């Protein structure tokens, strides 16, 4: 059998229609073949699906912005970065010469003025070339391979970088950074000229969606809360001045670049990338937008889509007797998060007081998040305080640290079978 | 044992600090006791936790906006509603007299001018009172009980409704509606004067988070795609002019009201509400915002939070022999969605061609969304086309309709035990 | 001989080109004959020149704004009016729903929202009809005849007055007035529907240019400082969003109306009016603007045009002897204002100390403004203090009150001839 | 006697109150003595009155803007300059990074971004230093003496010229100029660092008010229509974001600078300057603004002030008989401009047809502008065509060229005495 996903990707690409124009304000970009088209998906274990002109490399342009923002947050910390750059959608075009009128900061790191300020935050004391090398190395870590610069595009962009120079001096004038603005613009323009293909972009997006860990190299590139912050800002500011349209119709944190790339990242699930050079009037790839509308609809990837009905987290809850005595057995299943852990709390609440020994079976639990782990431990602690004996059956160590917070621990059991409490399958 | 959730709610409320002012522009609201404080959480099965002044009723005010937007979308359809009201954050204050300069429509349904236009979309041919009754009945369906109007607040607001009158005439001047603007403002003001308590609001929020089905009455109030649209618009436009701050710091679709209420809705998980009359300068409840920051952080409810690592969806995949022959057995576990179904596709791809008979076991699968169901069926169809015999072990009917799309069906099996293929637990 | 001015007016009208569109948003105005064309000039003594369709009456529309502003200033005083309505150009379109963000007042009385607020300032305690009657009577005083309302246009405008209703409620919401907004809009719309012809408008403009005195009836309609304030506001705010274009290219305080009228007023010189219904995109009469560009260029009426070189204010200054003794005689000529009076002061300064008796001859002075009168009197006072005898020769009473401020008076002389000091003409 | 004007100037200065702050964003300016205070008036014949710290020199700063705009208009022509820089008030602060959204040009030459673009228009092909020298020489011609640069202020400003660099690059990015932005900012900053005192500024202002001719050197620095354009732009854009306040309260075309200078120019009358370093929040000298309010009120210098009533331009008009026959004699007096010439036309119209010989006496006319000269000649031409004999009595050559436009000429007469038609004085 062959997995149907490549067929799907091909079908999506074939069904996009194209009527935009390639970017022309950077002469070198105007020479791009407008009919190029490629897409890739990267899964959380690093598996990549790709279709179309997948070996075509192009400059990353604005898609570099969220990743350098991530590097800045990681290196300098939230306080320093948020002190210099806001997180609000600007309602202005991507190259607007405007600061937040109240704070005199760039409004967000996804518009050019904010991205230039972000570049300056990386290795602030270093030379221009050292700073760029830190950025290039950081983006390479996101991609999982060493990335290079397209020197022809870099030279072409620098030849018309007047507006970016204006933005850099504007930020400099409000002490958004203290380096030489020309150095920052040169570094930022090199950053935009880094060459990638759709697979690189899909891996980079998946690294954000994977809490900061590159799914291929398994390197932790940035911390989880950094990845969350970047995805949050992409959600409201990533697709320029149509945040509401994108949120209602696609609902995936995303970022587009003027060379024709778009990335999207759905936490825990997938990193996606499309490349097609023709742009719509606001500067997003025409076919890229269409492909993401398909991804959102077909793959159920909208952030606000209701998840399907889950089975009850309580698989069984009943009295069982074995050679080891009488137990109140509770078998859990599926993912544990706040809402399912809350259901478990209610189940614990209803255990009759005379059921002195309790076995809680996590063998079928597929995942445990931090809040549900804490809730579970608190529930067990309360049961023990009330005089119950508690066995935790956790053969796959869903809960690594079993300290209940007050130095007590539940009893351990390898499995319900060990305790002689297993039911036959399906019962 | 008592579930720790009520303790948590109490602790959150106690730890909010209060330094805002109650709304004064509506004289009746200025009389509110500023020290009132309450919160409620509603789970997807209708369980409600509540703490504080939970019997206190207050006017719903702007929190009515997303629900009436939902009613309008449900009754009139997306095309009609989107033709009249945009979905972009406005960057203006909630009562701004501004239309989208390009489209001459209200920018979104969460600012007053858009909410007034939304009210007019409900039952457009009906009388003022019939329209209001439709709105009141719709909001009651969201709440699961019959809601009433606070006539004193209504009268007080109408006495100073000059700005809303201005907004209504502005919309009327661009043919945003064709009814009498005074009728629309009266209806809208009655809508804002509907009385709720925090439990009502939590149920209403959970109805949106529950794909449109009231978790208590089980009534489908609006369609799933309507609920998704409303939550999307709340995400970018719900908290007035700080969309980016709210998204980065809280990350829960939300809406606040000038009487001091805030609701939040996390799809599939929880509807939350807080009530505290003191407001910050942009008009959000001071303690309400603090409580939601706690909810987001403590309960892991941020939309962009990476989910915890799941166990591999493939629990076992190996050759087993029983009295019924030789099987290639694949046991799945946990939730199936695009990313885990994709993993399953890869597993199916690797089945050796000589393994003629395949058993796919869904007994431990906790949920199956639409895309993963389609992917699974497509994978099975391809296996059968290649000459494999396929058994689907689905004791809990995770996949109700097993038609593979071309009229073929996989074979059915009650359980691996039935086929004699079960392993002992833990192996 | 026939004066060439009518020929000039005809020539100007014939040489305007027309390519705009009549206003259509008021249905009744859309029925106007677009080819109508008329112009009139009114001089300070009431003489009127007119050409074209001079008997055609049309609704005054926005041209009423400066005159009702004048009535409000006259009736309520500067402080009250300036407290409610600003004087800054708005940079917004004439019907924008915007208030000054800092002061929450309408930005000026020439945009609709400011004109509506202005209407409400007239006779604030009166009924709607009494207020309108005060406005109609005031405009009639400006025109010098009783003006009537075009009831068909009034009814047509009221049928689509939604935006003006919106503006009125917006002003009401910030307490810009306290009357019923519907009453104010009805009164304001009647005000806009008052019928005038180009001769009426020229007289009205000349009344402003004539320091508030109607040049025909000689009635003082408003005070001089009111007229100056209105002309000042017309200068920066009269021609909508092109204040700079109008100031550089025309340089005449002006106001246009949507029915096709434009007025201009040059202090002390002329009131001008043109009527032609086709409008340019910002709402000004196409041929009206062209005619005013001609007026400005041909008639030297630009406010910032340098006046021609004047003859020296000192016609003669020398020693003369008559039977009455030895005199230092200074004959002045032309207009006296600050700059020429300053020159006189210098002349007085140079009188040799031994010239004990001085004769100052004002017989050839054409005008004396307030500052030059004060300077002259101060100069004479100082001469007397120094011991000079001073004769003032002022046969036409250019200086009615000769009190030098300290109770002293210069000597009086009917003429230089009386003193035997006249030179022969031309010497 | 001593002229009272110096006393007046002293009194004005003494009665200004001071509560602002000196500019601090340029470190060198922050060292200014905040208590310095000086003022000067320059008359059209070059006479200067000055009071206060009149020998104190300070940097011209933004007051250079109108003069360099004049130089650019003179050198490059209106079309080129207007194609690059608009004339509309911007409503933004003086250093705003904004272009006209419609035209992508700086909105006017009085805000920094427009002044930088203006500097680049002077000698566009020259080197940075040659361009600056042309500017310095041009400003020196306005001042009537060679002006120098304060190198310390220049160096200080260049050290913090980040915002101006941003503005220059922004203009460069829209091809507002093609030179190196750093060169332009350096030249512009040197321009702002030129040293002047209040007398220099008064002379410079009077040169604009004097139709472009320096009142002291009598050099024509710019053409009359250039001076008119500059004064027009100063009227709407000179005092930053309070065009309406300044026009209503002062009504004098003006420009202020951050070092504390303000100039005002009233066409044909006076150039005024005040210097006092403390600034109000929008950047205008606190005492400078107060002094100009006094000048406007006390000296009757408001542009929209109605001129005083003039004597009738017709001094006498009657039949007189001398040895040379029967004449219809018309004696004119005072200034001739459109409005008075129009009155003359009416007088000519009423000459009885049987009065064959006409004498028009201009001996008492104080000035004749271009339009009135043309009207007069046309009137005489028509009289001659109708068969009248016409004598022009113009002893002071008010009308140098007497060609009536069709090759005919009126007869000449030295004076009414020559013709035996003089009346006795006062009759």
Automatic annotation (TrEMBL), chains A, B, C, D:
It catalyses: L-glutamine + H2O = L-glutamate + NH4(+). Gene3D superfamilies: DD-peptidase/beta-lactamase superfamily, STAS domain. Keywords: Acetylation, Hydrolase. Its EC number is 3.5.1.2. GO terms for biological process: glutamate biosynthetic process; L-glutamine catabolic process. Substrate binds at residues 62, 112, 157, 164, 188, 240, 258. SUPFAM superfamilies: beta-lactamase/transpeptidase-like, SpoIIaa-like. Coiled coil: none annotated. Residues 329-399 form the STAS domain. PROSITE patterns: STAS. GO terms for molecular function: glutaminase activity. It comes from the Bacteria. Belongs to the glutaminase family. Homotetramer. HAMAP family: Glutaminase. This is Glutaminase. The lineage of its organism: Bacteria, Bacillati, Actinomycetota, Actinomycetes, Micrococcales.
